[in-house]
Amino acid sequence: MEHKARDFNYLLGSLEGISDKQLKAHFELYKGYVARLNLMEAELKTTDKSHTNYSWGHWSELKRREAVAFNGAYLHQLYFENLQSKGAPCSELIAAIDEAFGSYNDFLVDMKSTALCTIGWVVVTKSRVDNILHTYLLTEHHTGFPVLQDVVLILDSYEHAFAIDYGINRGAYIDAFINNINWDVVNARYMAL
Ligand SMILES: [Fe+2]
User: Is the pLDDT of residue 51 over 90?
Assistant: First the structure.
């Protein structure tokens, strides 16, 4: 299938603490991952795989990096989807947050602390193993995401997500992100599980 970048221009002018200049640069990066994913999937279909091996090979390299482009595209889609301050955590989600983290404030502290110790993503998931919420960190798009997880909330903590607005002040960006969470989207994801 052809992957298509979603249009998130509706976010422009609607976020507090995340500028349009920052967002537009981020959209371009996202579109690049989608384009790269399409190129990689097309090339994988036509590349000779009769001499694949662990050390090197064109098809081998494409396979090793395939999930980089895929997650680069869809983690960004999930991140932009859960931006634009709306609503509040629903009672079911609050109950799940309390069970997993102790309190809503403890959850925010956990998410921010996780983001401060990665160069990449924070994913908030509901685990199909223990049925509770977890925060996990990814240092690259394709590494660090445990299996049997359903996505509830995504935080992009790469420097490209905030350097235009905040320089190296990751913590200030994380605070701005938290203020811009679209809880309507997050609630819908959680309730669909
Ligand atoms: Fe990003």
Answer: no
- Distance in Å, CA 33 to ligand 1 centroid: 10
- Tell me if 49 is assigned to some domain: yes
User: Ligand 1 center to residue 155 CA distance, Å?
Assistant: 9
Rounded distance between C-alpha atoms, residue 35 and residue 61, angstroms: 18
Question: Rounded to whole angstroms, how far apart are CA atoms 168 and 139?
Answer: 17
Q: Are residues 139 and 71 in the same domain?
A: no
pLDDT digits (tens, 9 = 90+) for 107-141: 999 999 999 999 999 999 999 999 999 999 999 99
Considering the domain architecture, whether residues 125 and 44 belong to the same structural domain is answered as no
pLDDT over 90 (residue 25):
yes
Residues 46 and 132 in one domain: no
- For residue range 158-185, list pLDDT tens digits in order: 999 999 999 999 999 999 999 999 999 9
Q: Rounded to an integer, what distance in angstroms lies between the CA atom of residue 142 and that of residue 106?
A: 28
The answer to whether residue 165 sits within a structural domain is: yes
Please tell me whether residues 48 and 127 are part of one structural domain. Answer: no
161 Cα: distance to centroid of ligand 1 (angstroms): 5
Q: Which domain holds residue 181?
A: 91-191
